[in-house]
Amino acid sequence: MFTIDASVHVNALNRAEAGSGESQAFLEFVSKRSVPVFSPTVLLVEVATTIARVYNDPAKGIAFAQVIHRLPGQVWVPLDEITALEAGRLGAIHGLRGADAVYAAVAHRHRSTLITLDRQQLERLSPILRTQQPIEALISLTDE
User: So where are the chain's domains?
Assistant: First the structure.
């Protein structure tokens, strides 16, 4: 089970970015096998706005968010009061930015591995939950 940060989805789309191929391969592997992915609903906002801004193309951002919304295995976790309070607690304790703390709260609650390219999440959250980069997760999945 995984929680996948927006950084991985955005990286997979941008082939010019370092690690894009690994992010693509990981997402394809998870999608094809319908592995459960616990995603905060804020993921849809983050990918739509980031893609729209980076490519100066609102339609591309919206379309990409819709594709992610329909991926097999997705379990959407709303930002309700309980999740927000837990995200605030984890963010404050571990020095995270707001949306990063939401991913941490979702991964923590669902005991899933947080897949991210964000250094702060990787380093600061490793004491309380499993964090991996896409390539690490892909290697561990293919070794099983």
Answer: 2-143
Assess contact for 107 and 100: CB atoms under 8 A.
Answer: no
- The H or E element containing residue 89 is helix 81-94
CATH fold for domain 2-143: Rossmann fold (3.40.50)
CB 83 within 8 A of CB 42: no
CB-based burial label for 33 (10 Å; 0-12, 13-18, 19+): exposed
Q: What is the pLDDT of residues 80-106, one digit of tens each?
A: 999 999 999 999 999 999 999 999 999
Q: Are strands 113-115 and 131-132 parallel, antiparallel or unpaired?
A: parallel
* Cα–Cα distance measured from residue 69 to residue 67, given in angstroms and rounded to the nearest whole number: 5
